Amino acid sequence: MFRGEPLLEILAFVQARLAAGAGEVAFWVIDPDRGRGRYAGEPVDDGGERFVHRSWRVWGELAERLQLRLRTPRSDGALVRIALERLGPVERWDADAPAEHASERYGRESRYARISKLEDPGFVLDFADALARAMPGPAPRILDLGVNTGDELALIRHLAPALRETAHFVGVDHSASALAVARARFPGPNVQLVEGDLNRLAELGLGTFDLVISLNTLQSAGIDDREVLRRIVQHHLTPTGAVILGLPNSRYVDGELEYGARMRNFHQPELGLLVKDVAFYRKYLQQHHRQVFVTGKHYLLVTAVCAPAA
Questions:
Q1: E-only strand ranges, 199-289
Q2: In this structure, how many other beta carbons lie within 10 angstroms of the beta carbon of residue 101?
Q3: Which CATH superfamily, name and number, covers 102-306?
Q4: Which of 155, 171, 228, 286 could form a disulfide linkage to 147, CB 3.0–4.6 angstroms apart?
């Protein structure tokens, strides 16, 4: 049990147990609800005994930064049992995809297909915020590059129901199996789904759009993200068109969404390349008369809208 010990001591205890090979580390602490409104580290008295308050957010952050799973706590009166479990290996999206088809790395039979971004509250709230800034007119053309099975399309139609009938959606992806799922989800003449390579957009005859979306796609291996962005802005945006670009700042480990871009041999996130990409996108879009917003956490969203008149 930990009562008044500092977090540094708890951290050392957990790390020592992990270094010794433990698959789970557990300990008892004061129930965070007993210290509602207090800051982490402030004292909490219970039955004449003094404890240190830490919120559930603290324990969740500790688990995530040590790449552990926070198990459902057990309660015993004023105390709760914190149990931290080792995670399995990082997901490989192509583990179940046909080896001869690189385009199916994120296809219907891949492990990636198990994920629904619509069950990630951070993504839903951040995308809703970005869409509110970039919301097109009443009958827009919307392009989604890397549409996969259509989660972004589903979210747009939920957030702006009127667009179900008035908007024309075009989605591009190189996975035939993912597009088949999307076609089943979104039948109808106002949804067009195209199998194609983002490096060869000029060959697809897409036209111009009031809103272009590309989430967690431009950083994929084999894609020239700078050239794709130039192509979007110079050939596929209307004069007042908006852009929402998403960059992954996370990874999936044993079913858990872990914060931060990772590099080999780094224990904690290293955000240098991510910051470099965001800076390039922001500067390029500003040069083309867009007002740019950078938001998000697990997915950084670069939203560019037509700059207000001076």
A1: 209-215, 237-248, 250-253, 256-259
A2: 15
A3: Vaccinia Virus protein VP39 (3.40.50.150)
A4: 171
